[in-house]
Amino acid sequence: MSDIIELLPDLVANQIAAGEVIQRPASTVKELMENAIDAGSSHIQLIIKDAGKALIQVIDDGKGMSETDARMSIERHATSKLKTADDLFALNTFGFRGEALASMAAISHLTINTKREEDDLGTQLQIEGNKVKSQEPEQCAKGTSVAIRNLFYNVPARRNFLKSNAVETKHIIDEFQKVALINPDKYFELHHDENELFHLPAGSFRQRIIDIFGNGYNEKLVPVEEETNILLINGYIGKPEFAKKTRGEQYFFVNNRFIKSPYLHHAVTNAYDQLLPKKNHPSYFLMLEIDPAMIDINIHPTKTEVKFENEKELYAIIMASVKNSLGKYNIVPSLDFEMEADITPNTLRPQHIEIPQIKIDPDYNPFADSSSSISSGSAYTKPQATPLEKPNKDNWEKLFTEQEVTIGGTADINIQTEDVVQGVFAPEWEEEQEVNTEDQSFSIQIKNRYLITETESGMMIIDQQRAHERVIYESCLADLSNQQVIAQQLLFPINISLSAGDNVLFGEIIGDLAALGFEIENFGKQSYVVQARPSLISDENVKDVIDSIIEELKTETNGNSFGNHEKIALSLAKRTAVQNGRILKQEERDQLIASLFACQMPNVSPEGKAILKTINLKDIAKLLED
């Protein structure tokens, strides 16, 4: 029998590596920009066309490469950043695996133009599908230009899995922002389809944040600075009042490298405990400097996941640093030590101590009539009503003087306000007693969350929030198809400013929002004015709803099964549906149940969760058996 194990051809091996390193056009942007940073560049330009599918080009003014280096750069596992295995524990560079350019060359048409400062001529290298087509001298500027054309041209399956141009462009912008944020001393540009999206001159870290996310961030940022023997922290956190209902700008950088760490993210959010409303998320931009020997950044091909040697200590330091900054800049309530009031404890004050005097009534007779007066000559005096007692007494007396209500035909009781009754009787119990006797329909609300209604075979339990989400979801989908919704004009128009990445997504759905009842006008490069809204949204929720729709478009948890229409409808349903904990009147309960069973899929919510459960009479009888 012949041998069956063989070495993979270089092209196949590089295509497999590309599947790990180059997942989408944004992955290419990340690798090329990090290489430009490692080359010592001070000016980096990114040019993309057709969301990176047609062209991704990064131009830098770094040290460039020789003719031999240019040829070696596309070989697998070729790198200038590692010499021995020990170098892995002292990494201060980005691309050290030596797989990025080789992977790109295997799945695209790649052109490299590079020149060192000391050379008279540079080098141009052209590769297609991992094969060198040409290598010749070229007159070019100092630095390196890498152009990736027709990405995934020979891997059609990967190209077919790419998202829409807006989504892919948003991912590219995200990667661009991560590199630009942590390198504020460098000049960055981003051009998309001949339009300039970013023009970022060198400056401070704070100025770079403002340049990327808008001038409004200047008042939102609180500085964080802390230095310990294992960790140095610098950066900014967002004030609690500017927290978002969707995950906003949250960036961790370790040794100038962007990372994802749910564990450290929890440390930051935990520092905001009791400062943020439920389900709100703070922004943060934190740079951490750690001894490279104490971290492992080689656990994932994209190098965005890092393993720390002392996670618990880092967690405690980060949480304490954030808390300290929130307190230092008067973000959290604190004692005002400049108050005029004396807060010195009584035990430390000089004071004259008087001997207590005992006063008794010598004529007191416990068997005497309680109405009898006390001797005027007695040392005893009747205690006077305190200032707190008298108003309370007056309030109770007013209950019997303002409004007459006859109960049982025997007594007249005066009630001050309706709030008194609501304070005595639980609202949910009062609501549960309402029964529509006209059509004999019956439903009750349990714990302000579940609805119970009668069926022919027993009873049904309904989750009110999920049920309402299903109703709104299908209604929005119908409106998007019919495009005949009447918009409700806003009394005061609402201004919305978006980041460059969110603006790309917003431009893709602005027509769909108009079909739902929004009237939105462009008011500048990345600013808009909302003039009207759908009737199911309140004025106060317009901005939150739009933010949540954009955030929903970013997520890919639902795969390709959810298009833009479904994501918009889902976001609206989640934002506007009645929440668990709200009391529903009898007519509201009946209307919700009727609307639910008019839906095409009343059994499951838009996210696939169960809405209702039926319990038949036999099951109820079994529960009551001994």
Q: What is the overall shape?
A: globular
CATH superfamily of the largest domain: Histidine kinase-like ATPase, C-terminal domain
Strand content: 15-25%
Strand line-up of the largest beta sheet: 5-4-3-6-2-1-7-8
Number of strands: 24
Oligomer: single chain
Percentage of residues in helical conformation:
25-40%
CATH topology of the largest domain, what is it called?
Heat Shock Protein 90
Radius of gyration: 35 Å
Gap between N and C termini: 71 Å
CATH architecture of the largest domain: 2-Layer Sandwich
Structural class: alpha+beta
What do you see in this structure?
The protein is an alpha+beta fold and about 625 residues long. It has three domains: about 190 residues, 2-Layer Sandwich (Heat Shock Protein 90), CATH 3.30.565; about 120 residues, Ribosomal Protein S5, domain 2, CATH 3.30.230; about 150 residues, Ribosomal Protein S8, Chain: A, domain 1 (2-Layer Sandwich), CATH 3.30.1370.100. The strands form six sheets. Strands 5-4-3-6-2-1-7-8 form an eight-stranded mixed β-sheet. The N and C termini lie far apart (about 70 Å). About 15% of the residues have low confidence.
